[in-house]
Amino acid sequence: MANTSSSKTTAWFVVGLIVLVTVVVIVAGAMSSGSNASSSSANTGFVATTAAAITPTDHVIGNPNAKVSLIEYGDFECPACGAYEPLVQQLINNFSSTVKFVFRNYPLTSIHPFAMVGAEAAEAAGMMGGPAKYWAMHNLLYAKQTEWSTNGNLTPAEVTSQYLNGYAQSLGLNVTTFDADMNSAQVANKIQADITTGNAAQINHTPTFFVNLEQIPNPTSYAQFQTVLEQALASSSASSASASSGTSSSAVPVSVTVVPGASSTITVTSTAK
Question: Which CATH architecture best describes the domain 59-244?
Answer without folding.
Answer: 3-Layer(aba) Sandwich (3.40)
